[in-house]
């Protein structure tokens, strides 16, 4: 498994293609909702590759302040879920954020994934709310 953190065109394309397959095709989220104004050319993406040509997990890095990093659009290929790829991608993002001076991680996680994020050390803060047609909760972790 290779994990790449960059805004290089190949890595951005890999992240966006995974999100198309998972959020738009599999989950039915409208593409104009999934791909928003935060998907800029300078945005950093964490992408796990099973082989150089096969991206299998991703997330988007979004600084919220000088100390808080949001890990957004976290997803893993359907056929490979439950194999630890999501936690590897998240850990890589957390390590990058910590190395760049961020002290806390934030995630707006779907309620169905809340236990996954809790196993990764996150704690829910606040009450669930609707995002893109799904119930989500904000989770936070000290990095």
Compile the SSE list and pairings.
Layout: E1 2-6, H1 9-26, H2 31-34, E2 45-51, E3 54-63, E4 68-76, H3 85-99, E5 104-110, H4 114-119, E6 123-124, E7 129-131, E8 134-142
Parallel strand pairs: 4-5
Antiparallel strand pairs: 1-2, 2-3, 3-4, 5-8, 6-8, 7-8
Task: Write a concise keyword list for the protein shown above.
8-stranded mixed beta sheet, 143 residues, alpha+beta, single chain, globular
Proportion of helical residues: 25-40%
User: What is the approximate shape?
Assistant: globular
Structural class: alpha+beta
Strand content: 35-45%
- Tally of strands: 8
Taking pLDDT < 50 over at least 5 consecutive residues as the criterion, the unreliable ranges are none
| N-to-C order of helices and strands | EHHEEEHEHEEE
Please work out how many helical segments DSSP would assign: 4
Give an account of the 3D structure.
- With 143 residues, the protein is α+β, with helices and mostly antiparallel strands.
- The chain is built from four helices and eight strands.
- The chain has helices at 9-26, 31-34, 85-99, 114-119; strands spanning 2-6, 45-51, 54-63, 68-76, 104-110, 123-124, 129-131, 134-142.
- Strands 1, 2, 3, 4, 5, 6, 7 and 8 form an eight-stranded mixed beta sheet that branches.
- The longest helix is centred in the N-terminal third of the chain and has 18 residues, at 9-26.
- The two termini are 23 Å apart.
- The mean pLDDT is 93.
